Fold this protein.
Amino acid sequence: MPRYHSLGKIPAKRHTVFSKPEGGMYQEELFGTAGFAGMSSLIYHINPPTVVSEIIRKKDVTPKIAIDKNMTAMSFQGFSIPKGEEYIDSRKVLFVNKDMKIGLAAPAYFNKDYFFRNSDADEMLFIHEGSGTLQTMYGNIPFKYGDYLIIPRGTTYQIDFDTEDNRILFVESSSPIESPKRYRNNYGQFLEHSPFCERDFRLPQDLKTHDEKGNFKIISKKQNILWEYTYKNHPYDVIGWDGFNYPFAFSIFDFEPITGRVHLPPPIHQQWEAAGFVICSFVPRLYDYHPEAIPAPYHHSNIDSEELLYYVDGDFMSRNDIKKGQITLHPGGIPHGPHPGAIERSVGKKETEELAVMIDPFAPVMITEEAMKLQVDDYYKSWITE
């Protein structure tokens, strides 16, 4: 995130001696991206973060592909995924391309016998149901319904869920997930026309330092393999850190919608971007105010991207018979648009309470076997009125 943050104790100068009160030195770690050219943070450990006693290859979690080439509009009932599983087991990948994975999870708990680290991808967790605390070596981030959690690749974390009732939409990205560049100036500050500002982002707080020896297991995902690393030092033995690379939270309810006199295109809803996709937040808002405006979106041909819509809450006015947690997929190369009657229903309406997350991958997605378990039959025929 292009915003400097610091917690705990750090030395006055980087890469210099940082002495412990009892003697010895704290151990400095550069946690960076894009080699040494991307966002980074300097982290100060009580003990070296490299003391490993055992490595075990645990499990291959490569998604099993059911449809590798798709040109059919499809829909999936996301709330049909199984509930009650542990966090890692609950993560079901539904869609895959070279840039990302998209999936759902309904975890009942996070097994505190281990920590998790995604060494493959940056993560976005959208909290549809549930609340709790994201616990990391950078500090803690409380979360609740409607929150996006952005977790940089390689971050070691646990999640303390408040209850067993949790639902998460997640994205794994091969590139950093960032706010749109068009909303930032050359210094990284959000511009006045941005639908959010720095005050809306919740950064790590409450840094807790664990000076503990033992056998600490980190499940690290790399190249779709889960590896179990056993470390002799607690991964949260951090006395302080500073920099620009760290997890953070943003509430979809803090997205300030941009509206106009006539219908504006989907990019005005954009929340996040990465090298291979964008993510948009559709939030409660006033409709267009031209006296003859049509609030429903016009028909659109997806030439350069897929469209995946995840329905969170409210009545999504451009679709019929949509349920919470449902996902619609409209592949690139064919037109899509409102369901029959939606355009006419929208005329004269003043506002909407819809809440949805839209993901537009630039490359076609493959559909997994897990997704097919949730498929709604013949969705592509739902525009037939005869």
About this structure: The mean pLDDT is 95.
